[in-house]
Amino acid sequence: MKNSMKLRKLALATFIFMLMILAISHYNGKGGQKNDSTPHINPPEDLGGKGEIGMQLYPTGSRLPDCSHACGPCFPCKRVMVIFKCSLAESCPIVYSSELPHTVVNSFEQFILLMDDDGQIETSLAEIQSFFDSAPPLKDREGIITKVQDFIHKNSSSSGIGKAARVVCVTSGGTTVPLEQRCVRYIDNFSSGRRGAASTEYFLEAGYSVIFLYRSGTCQPYCSTLPDDPFLNCFDASDDTAIQVHPSFAKEVKRAIKENRAAVLGGRLLKLSFTTIFEYLQMLQLIATSMNTLGPSAMFYLAAAVSDFYVPWETMNVHKIQSGSGPLDISLAQVPKMISALRREWAPLTFCISFKLETDSKILLEKARRALKKNKVHLVVANELSTRKEEVIVVAENEEIVVRRNQSKAEAEVERPLVALLVDRHSAYIKHSGS
Q: Which UniProt keywords apply (predicted)?
């Protein structure tokens, strides 16, 4: 029995090896570039149809050679990390990836892994959909959809001066990663939410309508200049019944109440809160697909600190993890990069700004440039942790712009000149798009 199993495994390995040799020969015979380690392919022709192998195996982490020819309408100017379809039965619909060995899908076309210009694998749509399918259901999903769509409908009409109204989605605060389904413990991302809150004020001042997607409990628009715990620190109780604003905060509190109320009641500010990585990404997708109808007039200002790693819901403990079991070892999965999905699928015509925060200034700009190229966003705001309140660097395709706060004014914020710059760039984008 053991010898029989060994022979079957050897036969299968030999069969796969021969397929690779034939595929390479087939490719080189057609005049393609020869590369002994990672041969290139012509995707539309070589991938084949149902029941065919028609593809090549690449080792995990392989880098594909440069593409010197058009790959056809389905894969313009892209390189492809090829995956292996089960060859044991022609009717088998299952596709296995050498890069994602635990992922199985029934749609071959959906699971082709594209490569970016650095030879890194782009997040596949199937990988993203798998994340959403396994996430816990979003609470009040239908209610959120209704709020977002009503807000967009109200703010998508002409501004009255012949220009389309502009809407920006500002994301703010950090996401949590639950360690249990009935969550007691979680991993958190550092963010006070002050940048998103202050930026929301300046976008409203510039005439934008704002969807403010924020972490519950973080800083709110018009409150960024108030002290922590403003309810306790800004008010005095003069007697048993009367509560009044402390004189030192009267101006700021009056402004916060007045301007926040005007924005919300005027229908120009919609606030939506999240806590977990699951809630944030599901809500971002809902907002993006709804804002897609606005085209270039819409903007995404993605200032939230989003977790890079998470515990998949189906592998998570249901109840509180017990400390009596000894040291805790946790395996974290990578969160799929949703910005690429937003740019490719959810809202491809919108103007998109992402953020890059680092603690090491030596790698900050390189990481920002890479994010700009990989995610196909229009601008990346690069900020270093210790100087983030004083200056940021806006990285564009062909330039880098240093934005500093007005240091002659103690209360000045770097977000004011930053938003002014982004509004100008958005205007140029709209003009170039013909909107």
A: Coenzyme A biosynthesis, Signal
pLDDT tens for residues 128-157?
Answer: 888 999 999 999 999 999 999 999 999 987
Determine whether 315 is exposed, middle or buried from the number of CB atoms within 10 Å of its CB (0-12, 13-18, 19+). Answer: exposed
> Residue 193 — left, alpha, or beta (φ > 0 → left; ψ -120 to 50 → alpha)?
left
Would you say 264 and 257 are in contact if contact means Cβ atoms under 8 Å apart?
no
First-residue to last-residue Cα distance in the chain: 71
Q: Could you tell me the two tokens for 314?
A: 């189906």
pLDDT, the chain, mean: 77
- How many distinct helices (H) and strands (E) make up the chain? 11, 19
d(CA 34, CA 50): 27
> Rounded distance, CA 400 to CA 356, Å?
14
CA distance 353 to 272: 20
CA 239 to chain centre: 51
> What does residue 228 show for φ and ψ, rounded to 5 degrees?
-60, 150
Instruction: Tell me phi and psi for residue 426, to 5 degrees.
Output: -65, -40
Q: Residue for token digits 């080792």?
A: 59
Sheet of 104-105, strands arranged across: 84-85, 95-96, 104-105
